[in-house]
Design goal:
By secondary structure, this protein is an alpha/beta fold. It is 38% helix and 12% strand.
């Protein structure tokens, strides 16, 4: 009740407006966008065992495969930027092409490891920012 009285919407209405639906994901994919994983339940991957990471990562891949079909080059943006060597081993063994960290920088495949790529996050930009020239 408190959430609804402050925000003016129920949690369900707010979530529906804020987050992508399965239909939104399918629509983006059909328009040629690459859809990547962000895990199934958004854990700090580096705190999980290799088996738990494998389960978390592959569960999200299975869900994306159901929506968009199979891929030979999965991409993941690490939740909280958290990963470890076990995460990267899982990627190497399961058709992942890229892993994105939360490090703020332009990715350069000639310089950066493809499983430790920095990124430009929308949260890092402000209306007066001119990071990209």
């Amino acid at each position: 009740n408190l959430f609804e009285s402050i925000v003016g919407l129920s949690e369900k209405q707010f979530s529906s407006a804020l987050y992508m639906s399965e239909k939104d994901i399918i629509d983006l994919h059909s328009r040629g966008f690459t859809i990547g994983s962000h895990s199934s339940s958004h854990p700090w991957l580096n705190t999980l065992s290799a088996w738990e990471q494998q389960k978390e990562i592959m569960s999200s891949v299975e869900a994306l495969t159901e929506l968009c079909g199979p891929s030979n080059d999965w991409i993941m943006c690490y939740p909280f930027g958290a990963y470890n060597d076990e995460t990267i081993d899982i990627f190497k063994n399961n058709n992942f092409s890229l892993g994105l960290t939360t490090e703020f920088n332009s990715a350069n495949l000639m310089v950066h490891d493809r499983f430790k790529l920095p990124r430009l996050d929308t949260n890092d930009f402000y209306p007066s920012s001119s990071v990209i020239h």
